[in-house]
Here is the input.
Amino acid sequence: MEKFDREEGYCRMLGHYVPFNYCRTMKDGVPCHRILDCWFEKLPVKEYLQENYTDEEIAQILEPPRPKLASLIDLIEKAKNR
Ligand code: SF4
Here is the structure.
């Protein structure tokens, strides 16, 4: 899992270079949802994900984050239903 950790790539979200190690752990130990887009030209990142995660986990990893407003509305709806 750590074999590409020292590779570096430019992060468009942060505006500077980051090591692969950052990208594979940035969501509380889970890879960034953009990991395929950012690394496919440098590393066999698709194979990396397939070696280390189940298909279900990969689908969750690649899912774009929910907008904060949608999450907030969900929380309000849950609170109303209590
Ligand atoms: S995978 Fe995420 S954290 Fe890593 S470079 Fe791309 S956008 Fe930045």
Remarks:
- The first strand starts at residue 8 and ends at 11.
- The chain has a mean pLDDT of 93.
- Strands lie at 8-11, 16-19.
